[in-house]
Design goal:
The protein is of the alpha/beta class. The chain has 2 domains: 156 residues, Rossmann fold; 76 residues, Transcription Termination Factor Rho, Rna-binding Domain, Chain A, Domain 1, CATH 1.10.720. The chain is built from 11 helices and 8 strands. The strands form 2 sheets. Strands 4-3-2-5-6-7 form a 6-stranded parallel sheet, with helices on both faces. Helix 5 packs parallel to helix 7 and helix 9 crosses helix 10. The two termini are 28 Å apart.
Length: 244
Amino acid sequence: MILSSVRAVVLDIEGTTGSASHVRDVLFPYARERFTDWLAAHRGEAPWTELMEEIRTCAGDPRLDEEGAVAALTAWSDQDVKVPPLKRIQGLVWAEGYAGSTLTGHVYDDVPGALARWRQAGIERYVYSSGSVTAQRDWFAHSGHGDLSGLLDGYFDLAGAGGKREPESYRAITRALGVPAHETVFFSDVGEELDAATAAGWRAVAVRRPGDPRGREVPGHPTVPALDDIQLHRRTRREEETRT
């Protein structure tokens, strides 16, 4: 599969560039077990204060105490609710795990090579995930393939861009990048996210890794099993000259 006139790539993480089971079976439980300890260890600090305010706002209880905050975070984690305070504390807890070398970000084998090829081709490379920007940076900086952060140009999360199933989120990223929507390609394993991206004028490619229980195809979108199965190119010289 070949796509031309591409200036920017935006990548999902879970199920696309990294294993969904790693998130579900390793990262989520790791953070869940440490909500209480993290809040206690950082009580009164600026991140704690900001986080508590976010939790109270999302929970709809301005008087929620620390114990109640843990209960809310635990419930959101168990239900995989995509709310900013949960994503924030998960990222903070994981950051300590990465720093202590007890966590490693899972990245599929084809991803480093694809990022390097796109960089060589002059294509910008970004990540857009429901995980916090902090968590995204740590995932790629502490991957099983080493520090991949130099292959990425930036990160977007729910707090900065909005929900991944909302077209306006992709329009917001377009404004931030300064790249025309039709020259931006989004990779994700979730059909609703791909639908939202195309509604915002982006091009979209589904990624369904081998063994995914949802099947090998995403209805309505071209689907590849790995990033090796697609070639991306910037505008040709003739196209550049025509535009100028």
